[in-house]
Write a structure and sequence with these properties.
single chain, 2 helices, globular, binds zinc ion
Length: 95
């Protein structure tokens, strides 16, 4: 897994490979196995070996394993800024 540089080859229509959240905040985006994820927490969740510790993301349900990218909004916890601004009516494909 590698961190992307801000502004590095992310088109505005890119979305997280796990939760389909639009990648509007490149700072937290990571690449793993050739796919883009909204953040390290979601990338780990995609691997399926993360035990749920505490609350998960209010948008995509990913366990928050990387608190450096986690944000809170309206007293809800999100794995990253991408999920925090994602449309509320977008249902994640995986919980
Ligand atoms: Zn995601
Ligand atoms: Zn995320
Ligand atoms: Zn999320």
């Amino acid at each position: 897994m590698e961190r992307l540089d801000v502004g590095d080859e992310i088109a505005v229509d890119e979305a997280c490979a796990r939760c389909a959240t639009p990648l509007v905040a490149p700072a937290s985006v990571v690449r793993q196995d050739g796919e883009l994820f909204c953040c390290a927490s979601c990338a780990r969740a995609a691997g399926g070996r993360v035990g749920l510790v505490g609350r998960g993301c209010a948008h995509c349900g990913a366990p928050i394993v990387d608190r450096a990218t986690a944000v809170t909004s309206d007293s809800r916890l999100f794995c990253c800024a991408n999920c925090a601004v994602a449309p509320r009516d977008v249902e994640p494909p995986i919980r």
